[in-house]
Design goal:
EC number (chains A, B, C, D): 1.13.11.2
Family (chains A, B, C, D): Belongs to the extradiol ring-cleavage dioxygenase family.
Number of helices of chain A: 6
Subunit structure (chains A, B, C, D): Homotetramer.
Radius of gyration of chain A: 18 Å
Strand content of chain A: 35-45%
CATH class of the largest domain in chain A: Alpha Beta
Organism (chains A, B, C, D): Raineyella antarctica
Number of domains of chain A: 2
Helix content of chain A: 10-25%
Order of helices and strands of chain A: EHEEEEHEEEEHEEEEHEEEEHH
Strand order of the largest sheet of chain A: 14-15-16-13-9-12-11-10-17
Structural class of chain A: alpha/beta
Catalytic activity (chains A, B, C, D): catechol + O2 = (2Z,4E)-2-hydroxy-6-oxohexa-2,4-dienoate + H(+)
Largest interface: A-B, 47 and 47 residues
Oligomer: homotetramer
Mean pLDDT of chain A: 97
CATH topology of the largest domain in chain A: 2,3-Dihydroxybiphenyl 1,2-Dioxygenase, domain 1
Distance between the termini of chain A: 31 Å
Largest sheet of chain A: 9 strands, mixed
CATH architecture of the largest domain in chain A: Roll
Chain lengths: 305, 305, 305, 305
């Protein structure tokens, strides 16, 4: 298991004060550090230094971090990336705040992926000795951890090969033009290398864009309560609370003050390398995305940052 | 990731007809095959041929299966097992019904662990094309899949080394006599090699015994509803519904008609290889096991099969 | 407490076979009787003969029944109705299948309200001696009981007076043009005479129309699961699952095969005669109706039957 | 509907500071006033001045308040009480802090019941204009309101007649020695005069004692979360979380620092005057009380204050 998880999302926001309010008071992340025009945040159940970096100036994704367990894993992924034919660069330890040496991959989708094994690390907010089940006084939604992201790319098939060959990910679910593998064009893929039902999903669209990044909650009632908190805090909801057909997870999509789409996501089944891949056909895309409404709103399919 | 998951539990039951009723009608597993004095069962969300084998005659565990992804993984684990110094044997394809060639390891705990990469395989009950979120008409509790087991062993420290060295598992949580690693004696460990918070747990006790094996549910309300179904079906409940401090999962412990302890388990956090291990001290064991009552009943700590 | 509850909804459906499938298999009501072109249904937790009457031919509401406890209550309501100035008629015992003598009120809204104290009565599906918490094998959504209805009327203020003076209902919540009682025009009212947060709600609109009638579920997860079942059964969902600001209840709106709108409704607070009335202002209507999305779809406000 | 609800519980506690911590920080009630050796508290969703009075000195119940809608209701109940043959007294307005004139009934069970229609009144913590669904930042369990109490009495049959004749309550459920009404001796009764499944329950036992008084939550997950908070706050849990067979409600029983038993209670079905009474037989008492475990602990049946 080379890649442990999506370790961080680094996104641009138009106003850092507004973003701080949203991510720390509504989502309930911990503010770990504020350096120059950047905020570093983590969820209460995370032990690495940060999982979200907010950078003032614009909107959209700067890069995603993917953590590996061992330093050797970085070199292994570097080899695979070069073999695949994408550009890579090394970023020295400390250039990325609190993070060790980084392999930065220029993804075929136009995104930057940071591979790292070292980051300043502590413990979750409940600690490691006789911990309580959760912090007694959570703020707002109280999101425990980052979960995954959905990005867009012009060539989803190429990204599937990239994520398979370089990250060791498999496709848990896909939306394809037909069920015939020989003739199949992928419209979207949900990929992972662990039990997490998706670590990175890719949707056909413009290069280098962000559809959303997501935070993990545990149960359906927390999804409903998250939407309640958004109503109280005047956070614009895109869609939800509802269930995905794809992944079976429960969800709310909403926007941060800069217009980046967030998600809170709960449940879904466990992925395994040997589990048969699920395919959705074009006539069932809407049910796959929003299992209850079985229709897509235009905003959901067109607003990217 | 050599070991994908605990693939099957093979247990003895005193009466096959009673056991069939319990496992298929109350737990809601699918009966896949009945051969000689054995029943083969699977959950609705499993794609391998079976995850539970019930064998008439006695009580207790016969063996556990652990599935690996590739045939090569078997040889790798065989090497590690021999290096560790435990007895192993090869079981030819087909000797275990619908399973390929097996590496059978004689665990230091006195249990048998089957390592296999091949088993007759199909799809989950909702299929792989535009699947529904769950089967519309589930029976009883409707358990989707097997999850983990808790066994007893005289030497938990030895089992921790075995599971680490041979299975590649890490200890997610433990109950230890002190917090000082140098002087620490493990009373119980919860180990895994994936995001599942535990694949196998080991409690200090007699060799070769079963404390319980568990089925996965998704949310807390399903745990409550499972207990409701048990009340309707006169299934004896040991403890629950409640929450574990250890793993944070929600749980009901109950008994099959032969007296083997089952569990339904939901939630809990995701484990990662780099997540700091949690340690529970002896004074907090009861809260670790049963977070709400903070006391252990005698039955829970003494009834083994 | 003169009026116990909304006892039945009698609605028209275009096709009885389709409606039977929807109300008994998706909603999970019991079919009690089929007479001529009518089906009589009840929920599993109801003890009166029926709570829903489906009549083939057309669409929309025929009448609502309101049950009172004593025969004397009928005469008392008759007096109040005549004093209010609406037309009433007496319907002899047996004219309405399995119902005793009825006082039929011609509501100012153009609807017919049946007041009755006698109806063939039995017990809920779990019985009255050592009952289980719910029937072990529910069909589909498994709705236990009818709950309330929302109708439209040209003059909501007049309906509020009618429901107050004749039914003894108070307004638990309202949408009003201003907060100034002197200058206030009611756009919608939610009225009740018991702890049920609404027994009948009235929205400004055409006379004699039905917006929806609702079935009661207990918890939020049942609302989500109800939407899951609707997805599996191809039932068109109007809105939800979501929460109402008004009543705080959780909800899914959907359509029966004839196009009548149904709701499943769970939770909400208890109403009391002395509880201060809640007022919603026009700018907050959307949040009052759909607390999460804070926007109304056109279908929801225009489709009536 | 003469009696609206159980309006307040006035109990003794051994230490006011400890009790304040428990009732305001763990249960999450609002402290409204502190006068002499008494604390006055209310839940966030209550509008009357207080629903709990804590009086320093001893343990157990001082009295319960029952609110009626109109001043005339007081005289009506006074007449009924005198006809029944119990002692009553009038307590002048203001003698009970912030409460109007009171009819104090000496119940056959040895308890004092205050009947009142007037109490200083405001609004719930979310207000009456465009209210949020709940206060955004609740403390601890965040109990919205008091719900009911269970008291003991030597003669439960006499109490049933008293509550019927004087309060207008009916028995929703009972535990009786036989199913034969002619020969039936009541061991416990759950009585109400509204949709609340119980306003006051009576168990055979010593006179003038308190088994528990309860706070209302809405859903099962809140019951589990309440038990989590109790674990964090070292509140001793008696039983739960579990479900009652009787009332079907979800529950946790626990103790305040003085040893008075509290309950958080959610769900259960709606009671109606015409709903058939449920009877439990002696062999099923344990399942009726604790539906899952189907056994009673000795503490639950013997600890009274």
């Amino acid at each position: 298991m080379a890649i442990l998880r999506m370790g961080y999302a680094h996104v641009r926001v138009t106003d850092l004060a507004e973003a701080r309010q949203h991510y720390t008071q509504t989502l309930g992340l911990d503010e770990v550090a504020a350096v120059d025009n950047k905020l570093y945040l983590k969820g209460w159940d995370e032990w690495d230094h940060h999982s979200v970096v907010l950078e003032e100036g614009g909107v959209g994704v700067v890069k995603f971090g993917f953590k590996v367990q061992y330093e050797d894993d970085i070199a292994q992924i570097e080899n695979r990336a070069q073999k695949f034919g994408v550009t890579t660069e090394r970023v020295s330890k400390g250039e990325e705040f609190e993070v060790g040496e980084i392999l930065r991959i220029h993804s075929p989708s136009g995104h930057f992926f940071d591979i790292y094994s070292e980051i300043t690390s502590g413990q979750s907010d409940v600690g490691n000795v006789n911990p309580e089940a959760f912090p007694r006084d959570l703020r707002g939604i109280g999101a425990p951890a980052i979960d995954h992201a959905l990005i867009t790319a012009e060539d989803v098939g190429q990204m599937e090969r990239f994520l398979h060959d370089v990250f060791g990910f498999w496709t848990a679910e896909k939306v394809a033009t037909t069920l015939d593998p020989a003739d199949q064009h992928n419209i979207a893929i949900w990929t992972t290398g662990t039990n997490q039902i998706h670590q990175l999903a890719v949707l056909e669209g413009p290069q280098a864009k962000l559809h959303h990044f997501a935070f993990r909650l545990e149960e359906g009632w927390e999804i409903t309560r998250a939407a309640d908190i958004m109503a109280m805090d005047d956070v614009p909801i895109d869609v939800g609370p509802t269930r995905h057909g794809i992944t079976r997870g429960k969800t709310v999509y909403f926007f941060d003050p800069a217009g980046n789409r967030n998600e809170v996501f709960a449940g879904g089944y466990l992925s395994f390398a040997d589990r048969p891949m699920v395919t959705w056909t074009p006539d069932m895309i809407a049910k796959g995305i929003f299992y209850h409404a079985r229709e897509l709103n235009e905003r959901f399919t067109t607003v990217l940052t």
